[in-house]
Amino acid sequence: MKIAFASNEGRALDCHFGQCTSFAIFDFGEKGYRLLETRPLPAPQPETEECDKFQQRVDLIQDCTVLFVVKIGGDATKTVMKAGIILLQSEQGREIIPQLEQLGRMLKERPPLWLVKALKRGQGLGRADHLL
């Protein structure tokens, strides 16, 4: 499955969802993880409304199953959830790689239901299971 991290620098969670300028995209599964790409947002247009700004970000990560953010507002949360993306919040400045390693340990030891469902969804199994 693909996991997106709201990260301007690509190494740590360092921005609010509505203010990030890029997303680090990782492939994650039972065999580990790897960086796929960094997806920058297009330059903002002055007339872009807040709701369009959120949708633009969701459109950029639509193929991802999970999104890690530092903070996210209520309207943006609704937009992300409507897209069927699992939303996880983490601490400001927390590095991405240790979070992926923690997910890997969780997967091997005793995976929570949301992680099992996310993996199935990310593999194209049980697409309707994205609602927890």
Along the chain, the helix and strand elements come as EEEHEHEHH
Cα end-to-end separation: 17 Å
Largest sheet: spatial strand order: 3-2-1-4-5
**Percentage of residues assigned to helices:** 25-40%
How many beta-strand segments?
5
**Spans with pLDDT under 50 lasting ≥5 residues?**
125-132
Structural class: alpha/beta
In percent terms, what proportion of residues is strand? Answer: 15-25%
Number of helices: 4
Give the biggest beta sheet. 5 strands, mixed
Shape annotation: globular
Radius of gyration: 14 Å
Global mean pLDDT: 87
Topology record:
Layout: E1 2-6, E2 22-29, E3 32-40, H1 50-60, E4 66-69, H2 74-82, E5 86-89, H3 96-109, H4 113-122
Parallel strand pairs: 1-4, 4-5
Antiparallel strand pairs: 1-2, 2-3
What does this structure look like?
By secondary structure, this protein is an alpha/beta fold. It is globular, with a radius of gyration of 14 Å. Helix content is 33%, strand content 23%. The model is unreliable at 125-132 (pLDDT under 50). The chain contains four helices and five strands. It has helices at residues 50-60, 74-82, 96-109, 113-122, and strands at 2-6, 22-29, 32-40, 66-69, 86-89. α2 (74-82) links the parallel β4 and β5 (86-89). The protein has a five-stranded mixed beta sheet, sandwiched between helices.
